[in-house]
Design goal:
By secondary structure, the protein is α/β, with parallel strands linked by helices. It is built from 6 helices and 5 strands, in the order H-E-H-E-H-E-H-E-E-H-H.
Length: 285
């Protein structure tokens, strides 16, 4: 059994850890509320833009470079969104596993990585993966300006034929307890055949081709920006849950150590009493 001094030091250390995890939980809970509201507000816009884009694309007679579907995907770009910091449970691990499985499924293709977040960058850098671009130490999370820059590069390279497909892997936010690693194809954009056969039509200003060109660029940026918002909310939710579990475990450990300390103290008192009694008996003899 450990000595009383060692047990007291362990209790003090665990109490300090408990204070930190409780504070981090409160901070993450406050950030989660704002991030969740931002993600929820962005969902209707992204869904409506997706429907509008596919409708317009199905009615334009001339083809657009961002709608061209290649026969085979020999060169693939993957955008992986992780966090810069840890202490968020299995959030980063699940995303990295998803990206690793994606690369394994496409062993015959050249998969180039664009990494947002230090955790994903550190993992694939050590494994000598083909990293085209990385964005780390993003205080406050990835921004809209970063989504515009990455989206413009993807659209430019896809239109030039430098890549055959673009995918994004991010964590879809369901709740503070559930964040789902999601793979979504960004390019090429698939037109809706169902809308193409509809009888109703629209009047376009200036024209459908120009509108489609603007919508496609806006769509690419919106998908990436929406993935950023979902990832930020998911990270805060995962960290809040992880810190809540850590606080609970710390409290349980403190109770267990306190019980052990009481037993050790009682054993020490019993030993001292036995020594006193033994001494008294020796004096009598």
């Amino acid at each position: 059994m450990a000595s009383l001094k060692i047990i007291r030091k362990r209790i003090s250390s665990v109490k300090s850890t408990e204070k930190i995890t409780r504070a981090m939980k409160m901070v993450s809970a406050a950030k989660l509320r704002r991030a969740q509201e931002a993600a929820m507000r962005a969902r209707p816009y992204a869904e409506k833009l997706n429907v509008l884009l596919r409708t317009v694309a199905s009615r334009v007679e001339q083809s657009h470079p961002l709608l061209a579907v290649p026969e085979t995907e020999r060169r693939v770009d993957l955008l992986l969104i992780t966090s810069d910091r840890g202490l968020c449970g299995g959030y980063n691990t699940n995303l990295i596993k998803k990206a690793a499985a994606f690369r394994q499924e496409r062993k015959e293709a050249q998969v180039r990585l664009t990494l947002v977040g230090r955790k994903g960058y550190d993992y694939f850098r050590r494994r000598k993966a083909d990293i085209v671009e990385q964005h780390v130490n993003l205080f406050g999370g990835p921004s809209h300006e970063l989504a515009v820059r990455i989206g413009s590069r993807f659209a430019r390279e896809f239109a030039a034929g430098d890549t055959d497909a673009v995918y994004v892997i991010y964590a879809h936010f369901r709740s503070a307890l559930s964040q789902v690693p999601t793979t979504e194809r960004l390019l090429p954009v698939m037109a809706s055949e169902q809308d193409a056969g509809a009888s109703a039509d629209y009047r376009y200003e200036p024209d459908s081709a120009t509108l489609l060109d603007r919508l496609l660029l806006q769509y690419v940026t919106t998908v990436i920006d929406h993935a950023f918002l979902e990832s930020i909310a998911s990270e805060h939710g995962a960290r809040m849950t992880a810190m809540d579990n850590a606080t609970t475990n710390a409290a349980d450990m403190i109770n267990s150590l306190t019980l052990e300390m009481n037993r050790a103290r009682q054993a020490q008192i019993t030993k001292e009493l036995m020594e006193i009694v033994g001494g008294a008996e020796a004096l009598k003899g």
